[in-house]
Amino acid sequence: MDALTLFGLFAVTAMLVCYAFEDRSPWFVLLFAASCALGSAYGFLQGAWPFGLVEAIWALVALRRWWIRPR
Q1: What is the pLDDT of residues 4-54, one digit of tens each?
Q2: What does each C-alpha distance from 55 to 49, 50, 51 come to in angstroms?
Q3: CA–CA separation, 65 and 2 (whole Å)
Q4: What is the rounded distance in angstroms from the CA atom of residue 48 to the CA atom of residue 42?
């Protein structure tokens, strides 16, 4: 397994964990947004630009959800 694949595995695993714990703290929503940004970077780095684009949009959606969520 090369470094890029490990990076992608980390990104999607972090997304899964943060999504599962979103109801516990607004910080998990922010971490989910960051994980989506990592997933986006992975998509672009591996040449799957549609995946990278969709993950970038998800990162923005999650960031907005974190911004408007009561703390």
Answers
A1: 999 999 999 999 999 999 999 999 999 999 999 999 999 999 999 999 999
A2: 10, 9, 6
A3: 34
A4: 8
Q: CA 12, 68, 11: angle at the middle one, nearest 5?
A: 10
Structure tokens at 37: 């940004």
Residues above pLDDT 90, as percent of the chain? 94
CA distance 51 to 38: 12
pLDDT digits (tens, 9 = 90+) for 1-18: 899 999 999 999 999 999
Neighbours of 58 (CB within 10 A): 18
Which parts of the chain fold into alpha helices (H)? Answer: 3-20, 26-46, 49-68
